[in-house]
Write the structure tokens for this entry.
Amino acid sequence: MILEEINKANVQAFKDKNTIVKDIISIIKSKAKLLEVEKRAKGEQLTDADIANLIQKLIKELAESADNYKKVNNIQEVETIEKQIEFCKSFLPKTLSKEEIKNIILSLDDKSIPNVMKHFKTNYAGSVDMREVQEVLKTI
């Protein structure tokens, strides 16, 4: 499970005294705990797909922060955030290429937009960018 890998990385970060990694792990773990509480209230379990989505959202937030720091010319903070983004990406599953997405869409019986999007959301959550799915679907 992704959270187990994150916990192992947390232990290693403490051993290495790597504050950059410790900080981002702290954020991931607290967001994951909040998500777990929400899921438990609905009677659901926290899955790797949920954690992957959480990390993808966090990466987007970090990228926005980096852009803002670039605007005010704070290069040191930008470098820190970029290291955190790379660390976060290491926990995400391999993303599908446009060619792989196209092949999956072509193998479906119903190629309507809602059906294709639902298929990718349920079967490939965390390993595909839904915008890319839409782009590929428009070319078919």
